[in-house]
Write a structure and sequence with these properties.
12 strands; five-stranded parallel sheet; rod-shaped
């Protein structure tokens, strides 16, 4: 988001000028890749445990990837010229990132060959934020300018084996990364 106001003033006796702008971005996302079951009754296809069963000849991958990007730029200017003059300009730019990324296996039997099988549970989040705030005030009298730029990231990245999971594999990899 971009906000740009301009507010020049000129007077022979007195002159006052002010300019201000604010840009606010908020990103709230949920990205999930989940192997789970919705009921409590045993599943007929898995007489051993009654849970969800995934059987693979080589590997099973459960992967969730979230991408969040915010950019805000704000500019404000105030100019005041006269015998008695004052100018003020203020800006604020704010980016709030709150992405949730989840990769999970719950209530399931994951079966791969014990000698070569692999199970990967991976969650990654790629976040980028840029906040810029610019204020300029010019006057033949008093002038003041203020700027604030804030970026806040409160997201979470989770890769997990939840409750009641059985895995048969030669390699089990659980990986979570935020960058």
């Amino acid at each position: 988001s971009i906000a740009i106001p301009d507010n020049p003033r000129m007077g022979a006796g007195y002159s006052l000028a002010g300019g201000g702008a604010t840009a606010i971005n908020a990103i709230n996302t949920v990205t999930a890749a989940v192997v789970d079951r919705t009921g409590t009754e045993p599943l007929a296809g898995n007489p051993e445990s009654g849970k969800t069963r995934l059987t693979a000849g080589k590997s099973v991958t459960v992967q969730a990837q979230g991408n969040a990007q915010a950019q805000s730029e704000v500019r404000a200017a105030a100019a005041s010229f006269g015998w008695i003059a004052a100018a003020a300009a203020g800006t604020g730019a704010s980016n709030e990132l709150n992405p949730k990324v989840l990769a999970s296996i719950r209530s399931a039997d994951i079966l791969t060959p014990l000698d070569t099988g692999r199970v990967d549970v991976m969650a990654t989040a790629n976040q980028k934020s840029d906040a810029q705030s610019h204020a300029l005030s010019v006057s033949t009298g008093a002038s003041v300018g203020a700027s604030a730029a804030i970026t806040r990231d409160t997201g979470s990245v989770v890769a997990e084996l939840g409750q009641d999971v059985r895995v048969a594999a030669s390699v089990l990899r659980i990986y979570a990364k935020a960058q």
